[in-house]
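Example A, followed by Example B.
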Amino acid sequence: MEAAPAVTYIASGSHIEGRISGETEVSIDGSLNGVVELGGRFAIGRRGQIQGDVTACSVRVAGRVKGNVRATEKIHLASSGSIMGDVAAPLVSIAEGGTSKGMIEAGGTVPNGLSSVARSSRQPAEPGDS
């Protein structure tokens, strides 16, 4: 019998400054000013607020994110959610009412660095580039 995966919950009213990393699932209804790097799932509840980049296996956003969001499997933006930053995942879904302001890259595989993808898509072509 396999043990259930560990889940970390950050309650409303909690505030974290820094980095969240690991292989577990994390759900946040509080606020984070920092970076998320998870091998598991990451969920931002309706009251959750993130200021910083998020990278995880899958991401569900029902709260607010100001930063880039990257997932190796999928990103779901709920009707109450908003992302102000670039989004990249093989599968991206946005519910009616969900808002995103930034580049969205969906399909295929996700490149290693979202920031390099976002930068390259915004920079004008250099002379001689084709």
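Example B, a separate protein, is given below in the same form.
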Amino acid sequence: MKEVQISRIDVSAQKIERKKDFVAEERPLHIFLNQTHYVTILCSPSQLKELAVGHLLSEGVLKSIDDIREIRLEKDGKCRVRLRPGVDAEKRISVSQPFARLIVSACGSPDYWPLSKLIDRLDLSKVPLGLTVEARVVLESVRQLNRLAETFRKTGGVHVAALYSANGELRARRGGCGAPQRGGQGCWDGRVKETEF
């Protein structure tokens, strides 16, 4: 987020008002799996490793963070993810072939692919039967997330995402363009275990 000087034009009053306002910033993040370019995501320039991990987990390219041998962020916007020996990067990349290799921060993609086709292609873990979340917990979690979304309130131009436990405990939160994938932070630093989803 950056503070800038703007000119607000009121056509009906024929006035120009100069004032300070906040705008969202974004930059490209180029994710490489081993030596292969996987995707470029236009996103806020913070928590980039977490975004990369969250994206790779949510797309099914990573089965867990244990698949990662090394992750390195370079100054030119490249995030290099080296997978452990025995993890077939090319095979995992092929699962998501129908998708765009550029993900924009706007709500949508230049290469739309129906969610129903994605689900059939991924090996997703099942949510254990018997898991219930009370409606009041869901409602309060959404309210809390809205209160915490400071960058959105200031700019109106970013996403925010969070992971909550079934009893409503906030486990991880990230805001910024590209935020829906930033759940990788909670998985990366060990606050959220796969069994908690």
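On Example B: The CA atoms of residues 34 and 80 lie 7 Å apart.
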